[in-house]
């Protein structure tokens, strides 16, 4: 199957149904198909085809989706670029990805022109081509249909080429059969990420209506959910936190909402417990866990596991569920590749038809697995704090500090240190009075002495990436900046 073909059934059966709803108005399925075919026509006329990569710089837009589908039809692949990247960053990525052409929204055309050295294609130029002249669908399933960039938290983002053979069946599997009853989904995760793009394509393949929020803000999300009678949504935990904290949450009509999926970052148990208690009882929850290289979810914690005990606590706090059908996993010692003992923490390796590359994928995620097969992430290999040879994850420290009533939000990271290699740093958003000594006393009762925070910064906000993930590098820089070069008397033995 070519990725473009996911659009054909709804476009033929319900061409007048709303496919996408933007602030400027709706786009119907018939309109999306015509625009995709016109884009395929124009790209082909310019000599683009199988194996070509095309830089795409725009928000989640009509142009964005039509470009992805039109390029896929002719065997080319778009490379979605984040709109917040600087011109030098864009230049590096365009060269790094080998893009031979560019497409840009009106706000970003000049920036991409500077990078390419030529004018990028616009919506007007692509959409005015004749849809009837579109080339036949390219049937080479081994060709890339889209190139997704990893987050690049430790360097230049890595391009992950995803083929039709990998992505199209995965989207079709999630979407199921075309439905005459359209689900309405609120999409606020940028489509430059596999979670955002995968969610959009899944909704379109099933004949649903995608309500687009181009820039997430909690108040706008609540208004859209109520006004558009939204049934489903995917959110990052930080987004959920801001939605629950918004003053309009309790007065917003969310009675149409049926499913909230969340993922892309760790969700504190306290957050999950609160959302189960405060969202309407008709809402089911699902936690998904994966990464770009696995084209999204590899595990899921379904609604049945989102239950609270008599004390209002989760039955499986911290779990991301069990592997999806077709997904094989190993939990190993990252240094030897040997399987760890049952229940022990190790690096997660994954093999599945959904991996962007064949073979076992070393995810870089530390996890443990309980006797029922449920996985519990404990941190990233790249985030590991190495304090004088003692290695541990920042998630452990964050989980303890979130239990303190005065802590509204927290993030931990290793701070470079000439004596110990790294020291434990934390950035804390307070909801009440809290001192550094309070922090150390609280942590000292639950953590080994070498894990107790040594450099503590009280901040107004935790820095996040564009996908609302915690940026460990930014945390380390922030804590170092706030605490200066002062040496802290460590509560741990050195």
Key words describing this protein structure:
14 helices; four-stranded antiparallel beta sheet; 494 residues; nine-stranded mixed beta sheet; alpha/beta; Rossmann fold; 23 strands; GMP Synthetase, Chain A, domain 3; disordered C terminus
Helix and strand arrangement:
Blueprint: H1 8-13, E1 18-22, E2 25-28, H2 29-45, E3 53-57, H3 62-73, E4 77-81, H4 87-97, E5 99-104, H5 109-116, H6 123-127, E6 144-149, E7 159-163, H7 164-175, E8 184-187, H8 194-205, E9 209-212, H9 218-227, E10 232-235, H10 237-245, E11 259-263, H11 269-278, E12 284-291, E13 296-301, E14 322-323, E15 328-332, E16 346-351, E17 361-369, E18 375-380, E19 385-387, E20 390-392, H12 394-401, E21 407-417, E22 421-430, H13 436-444, E23 455-458, H14 472-483
Parallel strand pairs: 1-9, 3-4, 3-5, 8-9, 8-10, 10-11, 11-12, 22-23
Antiparallel strand pairs: 1-2, 6-7, 12-13, 13-14, 15-16, 16-17, 17-18, 19-20, 21-22
């Amino acid at each position: 199957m070519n990725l473009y073909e996911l659009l054909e059934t709804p476009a033929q059966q319900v061409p007048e149904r709303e496919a996408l709803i933007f602030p400027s108005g709706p786009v119907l399925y018939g309109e999306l198909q015509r625009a995709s075919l016109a884009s395929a026509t124009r790209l082909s006329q310019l000599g683009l085809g199988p194996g070509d990569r095309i830089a795409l710089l725009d928000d989640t837009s009509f142009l964005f989706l039509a470009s992805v589908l039109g390029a896929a039809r002719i065997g080319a692949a778009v490379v979605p670029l984040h709109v917040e990247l600087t011109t030098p960053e864009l230049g590096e990525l365009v060269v790094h990805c080998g893009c031979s052409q560019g497409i840009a929204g009106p706000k970003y055309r000049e920036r991409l022109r500077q990078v390419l050295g030529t004018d990028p294609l616009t919506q007007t130029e692509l959409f005015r081509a004749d849809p009837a002249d579109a080339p036949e669908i390219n049937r080479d399933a081994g060709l890339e249909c889209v190139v997704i960039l990893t987050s690049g938290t430790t360097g230049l983002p890595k391009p992950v080429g995803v083929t039709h053979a990998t992505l199209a069946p995965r989207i079709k599997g999630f979407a199921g059969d075309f439905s005459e009853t359209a689900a309405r989904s609120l999409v606020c995760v940028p489509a430059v990420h596999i979670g955002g793009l995968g969610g959009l394509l899944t909704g379109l393949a099933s004949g649903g209506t995608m309500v687009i929020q181009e820039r997430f803000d909690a108040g706008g999300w609540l208004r859209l959910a109520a006004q558009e009678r939204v049934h489903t949504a995917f959110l990052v935990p930080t987004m959920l936190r801001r939605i629950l904290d918004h003053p309009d949450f309790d007065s917003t009509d969310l009675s149409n909402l049926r499913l909230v999926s969340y993922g892309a970052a760790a969700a504190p148990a306290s957050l999950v417990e609160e959302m189960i208690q405060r969202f309407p009882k008709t809402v089911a929850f699902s936690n998904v866990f994966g990464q770009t290289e696995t084209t999204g979810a590899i595990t899921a914690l379904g609604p049945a596991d989102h239950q609270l005990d008599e004390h209002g606590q989760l039955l499986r706090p911290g779990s991301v569920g069990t592997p999806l059908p077709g997904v094989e996993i190993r939990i190993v010692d990252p240094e030897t590749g040997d399987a760890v003992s049952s229940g022990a923490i190790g690096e997660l390796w994954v093999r599945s038809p959904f991996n962007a590359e064949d073979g076992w994928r070393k995810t870089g995620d530390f996890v443990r697995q309980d006797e029922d097969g449920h996985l519990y992430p404990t941190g990233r290999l790249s985030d590991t704090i190495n304090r004088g040879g003692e290695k541990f994850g920042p998630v452990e420290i964050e989980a303890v500090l979130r239990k303190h009533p005065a802590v509204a939000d927290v993030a931990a990271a290793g701070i470079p240190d000439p004596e110990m290699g790294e020291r434990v740093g934390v950035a804390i958003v307070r909801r009440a009075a809290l001192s550094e000594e309070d922090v150390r006393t609280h942590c000292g009762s639950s953590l080994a002495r070498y894990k107790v925070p040594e450099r503590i910064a009280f901040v107004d906000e935790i820095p996040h990436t564009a996908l609302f993930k915690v940026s460990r590098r930014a945390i380390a820089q922030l804590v170092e900046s706030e605490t200066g070069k002062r040496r802290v008397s460590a509560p741990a033995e050195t």
